Amino acid sequence: MAQNRAVAVTDQDAGNFLQGLSKTLETYAVREYNQTSFTKSAMIAIVSNEDLKECLNSVAGKESLTNTLKMAAGTGLSLNPMEMKSAIIPRNKKVGDKWVKVATYQVMKGGMIELALESGKVEFITSETVRSADSFEVSKTMDGDTYSFSPARKQRGEIDGFFAAVKMKTGECHVRYMALEETDAHRQQFSEKTSMPVEGYGEKTVLKRLLKNLHISDDVDRAAGADSFEPEERDITPQPEKGTSSEELTDKLQAKQAEAVETVEVAEVVEEKPTEKKHKNNQPVI
Q1: Minimal CA–CA distance to 95: which of 57, 53, 58?
Q2: Mean pLDDT of 221-247
Q3: Do the beta carbons of residue 99 and residue 1 sit within 8 Å?
Q4: CA torsion 58→106→251→198, rounded to 10°?
Q5: More confident residue, 8 or 200
Q6: Do 204 and 167 belong together in one domain?
Q7: How far apart are CA 58 and CA 54, in angstroms?
Q8: Of 74, 81, 54, which is closest to residue 222 (Cα–Cα)?
Q9: Is the domain of 148 the same as that of 199?
Q10: SS3 of 26, please?
Q11: Is residue 138 packed enough to be buried (19+ CB in 10 Å), middle (13-18) or exposed (0-12)?
């Protein structure tokens, strides 16, 4: 199922695409929205991922990227991969007899926590991984939930599951636990074939499950239900180059970020040349 990458998409192409959407995205924003900051974070996300850049090579890819950015603007969360608040995920989709790249949107754990605390109703919120050697107990009562969690100091063992807890400023506490098998089933159901580690995915999933059952704010509700899922036929997650350290990968991404910011700033000042007016006989107007 190899895909042809006949047309190389440049960073400038991505910048022009985002600038063309800027006014549209602003109409979808419901939180305090900084258009320049959001556009730059979207630019960084796209140019740092070759599969996302390839979305600009097809109509279906552009449409999916447009819809994804509308959803992202609605949450107002940064798309910068370094901040881990929300993300654009590339997937494969078959259109006719061709395979194309399309984009979907996901809100990350950090983004959910930011929105919950921003509501002013939450005193404490967390999402953690529970391992076999840890001590974890949760009690559910009519007056609210309570839990105790003591991670083992050494050799915590294999992952058992994940929990999320929210304490409201009213004193009420809510806790949700999901076993590893539950999060694995969720991942398979939605073809969640990303490079996100098991811990990161589980902590994000259980937090969203908890927040979907609470009404903290409209912003939190929108973010908890904002994920868009597209079925795919195979894993297209890009793999790190052999021999490349995490520090080198971070350096490469930061370099891409600097290039992306420069590209967006250049695109912002580009003005369209005035069109020469002509008579019906195709002669210039004097």
Answers
A1: 58
A2: 56
A3: yes
A4: -120
A5: 200
A6: yes
A7: 8
A8: 74
A9: yes
A10: helix
A11: middle
> Sign of the CA dihedral 48, 205, 105, 258?
negative
Q: Which domain holds residue 146?
A: 120-216
**102 and 53 in a common domain:** yes
Label residues 19-57 b or e (16+ Cβ within 10 Å = b): bebbeebeebbebeeeeeebbbbbbbbbbbbebbbbbbb
Q: What average pLDDT does this structure show over 254-281?
A: 55
Given this model, what pLDDT does residue 239 score?
47
66/206 same-domain check = no
Q: Does residue 76 sit in helix, strand or coil? A: coil
* Span 20-71, pLDDT tens digits: 999 999 999 888 778 889 999 999 999 999 999 999 999 999 999 999 999 9
pTM of the model: 0.74
What is the H or E stretch that residue 184 is in? helix 180-189
Q: Which two tokens stand for residue 118?
A: 């921003």
